[in-house]
Every structure is written in C-alpha cells, then in structure tokens.
C-alpha cells in the first residue's frame, strides 16, 4: 500500500501546499482511492502518475470546502478523459445533493454512473483488494475517518487442521487457500480457520478534521498507520481559539497511548512554513509531536509519498 499526499494545507492553499487530498494506492493491481478532494486536487494529480481510469472510489471526510471543492472538476475531467466505469463516492449525504445540483446547473452530464454511499450511515464497503470501514469524529460538522484494510494477504494452508478434518487434497484446498469458505461433509467451513497468515493485513486509517483523537481507538485497532490533522501546535491552537481541530501534542499523545507504529500529520494551518528558520514553522509541529510520541513520525508535504510494506514497515519513498 502506498500513500501520496496531494495537499497538506488547512482551509486555504499556500504557494507550496494545496488543500487536502490523499491518494491511497493498492499494493496489488493499479487501483487507487482518493480521500478528500480540495479545490485544485486535479491539478495536483496531473503532476503524478495517477490516472482517473484506475480511480476506484472517492471518500470525502466532511463537507468543508477545503476537503471537497475539487470534486466537480475531477469528475468533469474524468468524463472528458473518456472514463466509462462507474465510480463509488462515499461522502456525507449533503455532498450528493450539492454535486447533483452542480451537474444540473452547469449541464454536466457524466458518461459514467456515480454510486453514492452516505458516510452518515457508517458504512463498510468492500472493493476487490481493500475493505473500508467508517468511523465518526468530532468537528464543527459531521466528520468521518476511513480505515483501509487489505483483503488478500499471503497465507499458507494449515496442513495439520486439514488432516484433522480429513479434507482431501484437491479443489477444496485451492478454494480455502483463495479465501473462499467451503462446505465439507455437510459442514460449512471458514477458509480463515484453515490458513496460516504470515503477516497481519496492512491497515491505514485516514481521519478527517477532528478535535478528539481518542474517538479513533477502535478504528486504529491493528492499524500500522494513522493519518491525522495537526492544524496547530498547542500554543497556537489556544491563541487561535479554534474549535474543531487538533494540535500536534493531542494527536501524538493519543498515538502513543495506543502504541501506534506510525503516525502521519497533515492539514497544517497556512501560517506554518516549511523552512525551520521561519516562524511559525512546520518544525514546531514536529517538535511538539516528537515530545509526546515515540513511534515513527512523519509530517506530510505535498507530493510526499509513503509505502507500507507487507511486514507493516512504513517509510517515506525518497526520490525517483
Ligand atoms: Zn479542513
Ligand atoms: Zn473542516
């Protein structure tokens, strides 16, 4: 699995950072998923190797413009690029109303079907290689986190259990190895019970804007990576008197409390600059988070790319 950040700024873009958009790529196949789609996301996509033909689904965390204003443009461009395959959009119900109104007023007739799934119902959605679950967060409007778990992982047959049950070598073994549940001697058998997994499935949690990271405890179970906003440092959050967002220490302390292996912070207030000589600097956010978290910490930048290996090892992809 691979994460590519298309925008890391909160609220408004800066000269070097666009508003929120994250591409999650499958480890098997060419499919990818877009989480949030701030204005200009399609321009960011043009600087990558991603294609709208292989986009499997779009997930919107909440209705604020810096997370969704790029949606009509991306759909229109996908249409002009010849996309015909249906596209799943998991988003708060208001997004469907807004998109339909936009399509009608601007006479945008998409040549592919949109399948809307309301995140308000906390859906579980299964794709060929990835299973997604939805969790509620705390923000000024309804906001959600999505968990992405790989579905097919390498496994070996448990020969001892097969022998115990007396399941003969043949097609049934093949089905169990493929993850297909079977029936044997009139008894339904779950493939999972006859497989030995070499690794735990890869799981990435991508959260929308949220001022209570603790809400993610269940979502983060067995996850190797959490992507969460850290709009400010604690001091700046107090000064800004902002309601609905997190600061570095708050997220970092949560990640530490659940022993999360890797944490990626993003959605930095536009006042933070990259240069460590600037003030305030994104380094201030890093330092504050480092003080509260002992796992692998990353501060996302636009076009920053990260890979999660089968073993659960998460790291930044350097250069190309
Ligand atoms: Zn935001
Ligand atoms: Zn927001």
How would you concisely characterize the structure shown here?
The protein is built from nine helices and 19 strands.
Topology record:
Layout: E1 2-7, E2 21-25, E3 32-37, H1 41-46, E4 55-59, H2 65-68, H3 71-80, E5 87-91, H4 93-105, E6 114-118, E7 124-126, E8 130-136, E9 144-150, E10 155-157, H5 159-165, H6 171-177, E11 182-184, E12 187-189, E13 195-197, E14 203-207, E15 225-229, H7 234-240, H8 248-257, E16 262-266, H9 282-290, E17 296-299, E18 305-308, E19 314-316
Parallel strand pairs: 3-4, 4-5, 5-6, 14-15, 15-16, 16-17
Antiparallel strand pairs: 1-2, 1-18, 2-3, 7-8, 8-9, 9-14, 10-13, 11-12, 18-19
Helix pairs in contact: 8-9
The protein binds zinc ion (ZN) (2 copies).
Explain what the structure shows:
This protein is an alpha/beta fold and 320 residues long. The protein folds into two domains: 2-153 and 198-316, Ribonuclease Z/Hydroxyacylglutathione hydrolase-like (Metallo-beta-lactamase, Chain A); 155-196, no CATH class. Helix content is 23%, strand content 27%. Strands 6-5-4-3-2-1-18-19 form an eight-stranded mixed beta sheet. It is globular, with a radius of gyration of 21 Å. It starts with a strand and ends with a strand. The model has no long low-confidence stretch (mean pLDDT 95). It binds zinc ion (2 copies).
């Amino acid at each position: 699995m691979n994460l590519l950040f298309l925008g890391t700024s909160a609220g408004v873009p800066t000269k070097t950072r666009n508003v929120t958009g994250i591409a999650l790529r499958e480890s098997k196949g060419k499919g990818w998923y877009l989480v949030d789609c701030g204005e200009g996301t399609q321009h960011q996509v043009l600087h990558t190797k991603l294609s709208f033909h292989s986009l499997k689904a779009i997930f919107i965390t909440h209705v604020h413009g810096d997370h969704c204003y790029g949606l009509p443009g991306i759909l229109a461009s996908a249409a002009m690029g010849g996309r015909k395959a249906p596209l799943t959009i998991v988003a708060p119900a208001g997004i469907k109303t807004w998109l339909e109104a936009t399509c009608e007023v601007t006479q945008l007739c998409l040549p592919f079907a949109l399948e809307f799934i309301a995140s308000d119902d906390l859906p579980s959605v299964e794709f060929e290689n990835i299973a997604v679950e939805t969790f509620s967060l705390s923000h000024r409007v309804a906001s959600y986190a999505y968990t992405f778990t790989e579905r097919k992982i390498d496994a070996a047959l448990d020969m001892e259990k097969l022998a115990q049950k007396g399941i003969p070598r043949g097609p049934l073994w093949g089905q169990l190895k493929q993850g297909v549940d079977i029936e044997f001697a009139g008894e339904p058998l779950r493939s999972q019970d006859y497989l030995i997994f070499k690794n735990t499935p890869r799981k990435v949690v991508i959260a929308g804007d949220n001022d209570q990271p603790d809400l993610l405890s269940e979502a983060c179970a067995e996850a190797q990576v959490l992507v969460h906003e850290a709009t400010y440092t604690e001091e700046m959050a107090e000064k800004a008197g902002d309601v609905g967002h997190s600061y570095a220490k708050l997220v970092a302390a949560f990640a530490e409390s659940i022993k999360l292996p890797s944490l990626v912070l993003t959605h930095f207030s536009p006042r933070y600059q990259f240069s460590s000589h600037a003030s305030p600097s994104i380094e201030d956010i890093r330092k504050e988070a480092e003080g509260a978290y002992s796992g692998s910490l990353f501060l996302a930048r636009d076009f920053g790319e990260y890979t999660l290996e089968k073993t659960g090892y998460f790291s930044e992809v350097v250069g190309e």
